[in-house]
Amino acid sequence: MPEYSIIRDIVIILLVSLPIIFIFKKLNLPSIVGFLLAGVVIGPSGLKLIQSNEQINLMSEIGVILLLFTIGLEISFSQMLKMKKYVFITGSLQLGLTTLIATIIFYYFKVSLLQSVFFGILISISSTSIILNLLSQRNELDAPHGRISIGTSILQDIAVVPMVLLVPILNAESVFSPKEILLQLLIAFGSVGILFTAAKFLMPRIIYQLAKLRMREAFTAGVILLLLGTAFLTHEMGLSFAIGAFAAGLILSESEYSSQITSDVLPFKDTFNSIFFVSVGLLLNLKFVFEIPLIIITSTIGIILLKAITVVVIVLLQKYPARIAVLSGLMLAQVGEFSFVLAQTGLQSNLFSGEFYNAYLASSIFTMILSPLLVRMAPLIALHSSKFEKAKIPTGDFLNSLKDHVIIAGFGLNGSNLARVLKETGIQYVVVELNPETVKKEKLKGEKIVFGDISKEEILNSVKINQARIIVFAISDPSVTKISLRLSKKLNPDVYTLVRTRYVNEVDPLKNIGADEIIPEEFETAIQIFRKVLEKYHIPLNIIMQQVKFIRDESYRLLRKDETGLTSLANIEEILAQGITEIFYISDDNKFIGKSLSELNLRALTEATIIAIVREGKTISNPSGREIILQNDTLVITGNHFAVDKAISFLSSSSDDSIFN
Predict the structure, then answer these.
(1) Residue 53 — very low, low, confident or very high, per pLDDT cuts 50/70/90?
(2) How far is Cα 111 from Cα 123, in angstroms, rounded to an integer?
(3) How far apart are the C-alpha atoms of 70 and 338, rounded to whole Å?
(4) Confidence band for 134, pLDDT divided at 50, 70 and 90
(5) Cα-flanking dihedrals φ and ψ of residue 547, to 5°?
(6) Do residues 333 and 133 make contact, with C-beta atoms less than 8 angstroms apart?
(7) pLDDT at 302
(8) Does the domain made of 401-501 have the CATH classification 3.40.50.720?
(9) How confident is the model at residue 98, as a pLDDT?
(10) How far apart are the first and last CA of the chain?
(11) In the chain, what are the helix, strand and coil shares in percent, each to the nearest 5?
């Protein structure tokens, strides 16, 4: 039946989405690209499985609402303050310059001024989803170019809200005086401000009451009601659903229940995101692309070059090396998902003709499809570009006295903690950091830190790599770590290299390059977990340490997925079956102080035996039943694992009503 065709369309989209997620995961490509391609294949220009524009627009609208809501949840005010330099400086410059340059280019090609501004705004936005996906895959979220890209994309996401408000004013058919434009903006922003204030006052109270019910179904239903209700209110005020959804997410991000909200909404978000991106692909007119392929190719390349070069210039102006600038530029070179939201608004406001809209859509989709390829090529391009850059040699009196010292690459959490310990122990060290703001701030505190790219030979020589004893790589940039590691070993084969990495699959490549010690955070956490579990089962400490050493010596091979057995742990069952010895300290509030061992009757109650008492540095072996338990005694207990656990619980109990009675 025709009225149920939307259900058929959703079934088709989800049926296509599942294999795409699997295939693109295997290829290490963002699933967004797959969804876009799927939309092209099953849409009106492809196999024609879905043809209704009205239903396509409805599905994409729902996807946009959930997309903006979850982005709002992920962008908290506190996060923005932490990344204020990247958000407000780099992000603002990128948006402003890209829009300005694109406007000039379009205007030069006889596009009206207001339309040129609109096209410039569309091009200036990058894809937060693709950027986060690619950075996460490459373990570069905390790398300098990662922070720059994320900070810039956060500002772009926030800027979408006022952009949506501005789009109707850019309508070429409407004639507004400056006073009328200002009045409309004031009304629009005022409406959003009132809604935002009311929501900020009411939402936390509503969420608190929902949480008090302790019913997950009610909590989830309440969150969805707040989301859709706020979106509906903004729509009724003449704005878009998307603005209300974003405002709701931003407010709830500061709530103590934000993690629970995210976990409840995430399944819906991922599902409707796939619908949104597939729906964007559905809109692509392949016939139009084949009619003017040269124009589409030229505009696609032009958008990528414009965005990348603009970001490169901005990052270079902030005193970052060329390598970081190139990596940031290529990461932000695609057109983003929120551009499609604005494009739909522009279409409704008659800012687009069919021809311009199809050309924009095709070029934007192709920039997103090409983005993973560009990012994969980025390290190679960045490496070649840095060859033309002359490294600035750091200076400082403390550099002249460096000998037998430690070089710390990166001043993040790990690097700063190591520097503090080395300072307290009097060991000579020097920190090499790429963030100019961090270097400036820490130098004022007297920190031994220099600005430079650790992958440059001039920088390594300036910090006396040939006389260093240890170099520690505490940076979140795998490609730079490998380059620097290889160069360090070339300049000083005897230097001890210690590398921090996030994932264990990076261990073997780093070992092959020459790393002496590799600490993968992923499996150091696993080691701590299994160590704590074994301690609870009273496995002797020397056995635990032996297992830890064995795993580390084998480069964590026993913990990897491709290993079928943990042969070195095969004797654990035998250890558990044997008797163990444990000690128990009698504190001043223990209820058994003053009682004799016969009164304690520990063996009868728990099957464990007290074989000795350590008192004031002397050992009482095989104590008799008449021996009195005193404060500060240490009891030596033996028995099997269950008996010893039972005895310790009994001795630790706070009342005479023991669970063993």
Answers:
(1) low
(2) 15
(3) 13
(4) confident
(5) -65, -40
(6) no
(7) 95
(8) yes
(9) 94
(10) 71
(11) 65, 10, 25
Provide φ and ψ at 15, rounded to 5°. Answer: -65, -35
The H-or-E segment that residue 584 falls in is strand 580-585
Strands 470-473 and 496-501 come out as parallel
Instruction: Kindly indicate the confidence band of residue 567, based on its pLDDT and cuts at 50, 70 and 90.
Output: very low
CB 302 within 8 A of CB 95: no
Question: 579-652, superfamily in CATH?
Answer: Regulator of K+ conductance, C-terminal domain (3.30.70.1450)
CA distance 79 to 155: 12
Secondary structure (H, E, C), 118-150: HHHHHHHCCCHHHHHHHHHHCCCCCCHHHHHHH
CA atoms within 13 A on the CB side of 558: 18
pLDDT at 308: 95
Q: What residue type is 291 in one-letter code?
A: E
Helices 241-252 and 144-166: angle between axes, nearest 10 degrees: 140
Pairing mode, if any, of strands 406-409 and 470-473?
parallel
3-state secondary structure 168-195: HHHCCCCCCCHHHHHHHHHHHHHHHHHH
Domain at 2-174+266-382, CATH class: mainly alpha
pLDDT given for residue 658 in this prediction: 45
Q: What is the dihedral of CA 14, 20, 25, 28, to 10 degrees?
A: -140
What band does 204 get if pLDDT is binned at 50, 70 and 90?
Answer: confident
Task: Say how many residues make up the chain.
Answer: 661
Q: Where are the domains of the chain?
A: 2-174+266-382, 401-501, 523-576, 579-652
Rg of the chain (C-alpha set): 32
Q: Mean pLDDT, the chain, as a whole number?
A: 80
Asked if 507 and 553 count as a contact pair (C-beta separation under 8 A), the reply is no
Concatenated DSSP letters of 630-653: -TT-EEEEEE-HHHHHHHHHHHH-
> Which long-range contacts link 479-483 to residues 24+ away (Cβ below 8 Å)?
479/379, 480/143, 480/323, 480/453, 480/454, 480/455, 481/409, 481/510, 482/509, 482/510, 482/513, 483/383, 483/455
pTM given for the model = 0.69
Largest CA distance in the chain: 105
- Residue 564, pLDDT > 50, answer no
Q: What is the 3-state secondary structure (H, E, C) of 449-512?
A: EEECCCCCHHHHHHCCHHHCCEEEECCCCHHHHHHHHHHHHHHCCCCEEEEEECCHHHHHHHHH
| Confidence band of 179 (pLDDT split at 50, 70, 90) | low
**Rounded CA gap, 300 and 284, in Å?**
14
pLDDT > 50? residue 632: yes
Kindly indicate the confidence band of residue 70, based on its pLDDT and cuts at 50, 70 and 90.
Answer: confident
DSSP for 398-458, written as a single string: HHHT--S-EEEE--SHHHHHHHHHHHHHT--EEEEES-HHHHHHHHHTT--EEE--TTSHH
